[in-house]
Structures are given as C-alpha cells and as structure tokens.
Hints:
This protein is α/β, with parallel strands linked by helices and 338 residues long. Helix content is 30%, strand content 23%. It has helices spanning 28-34, 41-46, 60-74, 99-107, 125-138, 162-165, 230-252, 269-277, 290-293, 300-310, and strands at residues 12-20, 24-27, 50-53, 84-88, 115-119, 144-151, 171-179, 187-195, 203-204, 227-228, 261-264, 319-326, 330-337. The strands form 4 sheets. Strands 1-7-6-4-5 form a 5-stranded mixed β-sheet, with helices on both faces. α3 (60-74) crosses α4 (99-107). It starts with 11 loop residues before the first strand and ends with a strand.
Amino acid sequence: MIAGPGPWPLPLRILGTGAYVPSRQIPSEHLDAVNGRPAGTTLAASGVRVRRWADTHETSSHMAAAALTDAAAAGGVGLGELDAVLVGAVVPEQPMPTTAVLTLRRLGLGDGRVEAFDVNASCLGFLTALEIAALGVAVGRWRTVGVAAVDVASKGLDHGDVESSSLFGDGAGAAVVRRTADGEGSGVLALRIGCWPEAADLCRIDAGGTRWNTTTPPPDARSYLFRMDGRGVLKQAAARLPGVLAALFEEAGLTPDDVDVVVPHQASGVGLRYLREKLGFPAHAVVDVLGERGNQVSASLPVALHEAVASGRLRRGGTALVLGTAAGLSVGAALVRY
Length: 338
C-alpha cells in the first residue's frame, strides 16, 4: 500500500548542482590483486571499472561542504543566503554532532541563522531531504536550502564478499534549491516513497549502533561491515517499483514519454539494465555513472543528477525522473521539472 496523494506540485527550483570526487582511484584490477582474486573477478561481479575512495583528509563534512559550495556557485547563490543545510548519509562522520552541523562549520556559516540536520533514509537520503526542502520552502519556512548527500562506503566493506565489496565508491553530491518564482515553471511535480520492512535484512550493518558496539560487542566482528543480498534486493525492487512509478505518473498527470532524463540511484549494473530493458526507458535517457563511480550510496542520486545537468542532458524546462531503492526496503521516485 502506497500513501495517498500529497501536496504536489510544489514550487521548487533547483538553482545549481555540484559533486565531489574523492582523490583515490581504485581500479577493479587493484582489488583483484590485493584480495587474491582471479583477474577480472571484481569487474565481472560489479560492472565498476574504477571507483573513488576517500583519503584520510576527505571526511564526510569535507566532501559535503565542497559539493554544496560548487552547487551554490553553479546556481549563482552565496553561501550566506542558505537558510538550511540538509545532509543525507547512511553513516555519519561521527555519532554527534550531525554531519550537517560539521558541514555548516566547514562552510563558515556559524551565526546561528542556518538550520542544519541529517537525514538517514539509506540510499534515498537525498530524495527524502529534497522532499523536506520542497515542503519547507513551499510553506515559507525557508527560502534557500542546500541539500547534500555523502557517504564513505569504503570503510565498511567486507572484502571477503565479492558481490558487496566490489560495488561501492565514496563521494558527495548536492543541490541548492529555492521556491519557484511565478512563471518559472520549475517544481516537484510528484514524489512517492514506500517502505516494505519485511525486506529489512537484505541490506544491513548489524553493529555500530545501540544494540552492538564497543560496550556490548557483537558475536562476530564482521557485523560492523556491510552485508547485502543483491539478488533478494533486486527481486523485491522489481516487484515494488512498477507500482510506485504508476502512482507517481498518475498523480503528476504525465506518462513516461514526458520524461527527458532518468536519474537513478546507481544501485548496480543489473538494476540499471532493468530500467532500460524491463521498464523500457531509452538507454540514452538513463544516467549511468556506475562504471566510473560505483554505487555511492546516499551520494549516488545527487551525483547522477549533477551529471545530467553538467552534461546538458537535463536542461531548463526539462523533466527528470529521479528514482531509487534503499535498505528497508524502500522504493522512491520523483518527477522534477528542472
């Protein structure tokens, strides 16, 4: 069951986008060599030729602040114009204060005027934060909002599991948004997110929270690392995504033919092929940066959005379908008039 119609459309304009690319390039051949795998194993398992991993100085707040700075510059917005900074992340830089607060400090916005908080909706963190920003500006809570997503997945991988460890990269992406001025035509036309918690065990990190930690250690130290049942996730997503999309297009009064570009969470090569081959979206319309970035978890959506804008595939007046899945299992999508 998917929640009923929302307050759409909402008058939101994406002023600018940005992304941060970590400095370390990790080719799949390198992972084969250091983990004692036959040549070609990592690439075959993931479809990722090279992923970027953060160096020691590239913290989550460092990357989020850099992406937001670029997004503000692209949109012609001064950082001092931000009323709120929302940061999506699966794993924060530290338990407290939030990554958003640490990002705010790096941006030099310390006058007490800017609201800042994190959003953890797994790989749909950016889409959820964008929804909050859209609602906030629509009711006049904020005028200009910086929305970022960042993850450092490389520090939580179990390299004994080729399927999960070969897929992920680090990074950050961001957008700066503002209420649409009359006549601009931009907006969030519709947005849907549904959650099916019976699939909660398919993607997980069991330890590191309040249940298992250094005070109450887990029975297996690998519980601190990411675990994924990729086949199970794909099966669940394929069963849920068509219904979410049907409701989304109906609510917006559009059809898939009205979409100029599809901006997906870079879940996996199989997932991206599903969009093209099973759902019928043209290959040229689907943004695919998986091979050079990997699955950047929360950052995948804004990085793909930035690629769509920077490459000219998403132009002013165009319509983007932004969609993805997340641990939970959650499935979400939005139609955005850029």
